[in-house]
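User: Good morning. I'm curious how biotin would be positioned relative to this chain. Could you predict the structure with it bound?
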Amino acid sequence: MIPAAPEDLTPARVAQFLNTRALGKSIRCLDETTSTSDEVHRDALNGAPHGHVVTAESQTAGRGRKGRRWLAPRGVNLSFSILLRPNLAAEQVPSLTLCAAVGCREALLELGADSCALRIKWPNDLNHQGRKLAGILSEMTLGKGRSVNHAVIGIGMNVNLDTALLPPPLNEEAVSLRNILGHEVDRALLLARLLFHLENAFEAGFPRVEKKYREGSSTLGQRVRAMMENETIEGLAEDLTPRGALLIRRDDGGLTEVQAGDVVHLR
Ligand code: BTN
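Assistant: Good morning! Here's the predicted structure, ligand included:
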């Protein structure tokens, strides 16, 4: 058997670094798939346990929020999805995404990222000096009533990618951990530390990680434009609700609660 290269992402190498109760204890590391989130939804239907993870070196139909494509070059980044079997109502799922952003930020700070530069753009983009480092996509299937049968949290992170090689405008808009830290990162170690901090954040729940979310937020206190399904508004991103929705003080003085949408930071 050919031994795995040190930087390979394999279940055995992730297990070497893993220090979690459930996240990543069951894991499949694939070479190629449509989307790791598709794999996890399928595994969930076949009885995979809470915390099950699927990673892929390449996704042929990786998806981002709002139906956008998620593209990543083979082998240098992290693309993975986590199965959660939470006891939650559907309305609480968006707050899982905010917990995920906090968990990712904590792991990256531990690995040496600068806390002033590494910020969370509401709801859950991780940006470094305004450039995108990672994105998070949460999906769920409903059971009886409005309860959540399972949730799948998909995370894509630029790790050892040299963003200078990306075509414009991506070379200006994206950043990788290698760009930030100045050296390559072992993706198995990184994944294990991400899973550790994600597990803590999910178990704590949004009310208990809210302070960390606020500390890491680049959106609160900013003038923003929010694009929702039926309308676009501008105003000051004033506060968060207990479930993590964004409260925007419009220019006419009224307050709009944005549950889901995209925001652009305005100068
Ligand atoms: C976003 O910023 O819009 C979210 C991007 C989420 C991408 C990840 S990569 C792993 C998982 N599989 C997918 O198809 N999407 C998520």
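The pocket of biotin is lined by residues 35-37, 59, 62-65, 68, 70, 79-81, 125, 135-137, 154-156 (CB under 6 Å). The two ends are 57 Å apart (CA to CA).
Let me know if you'd like a different ligand tried.
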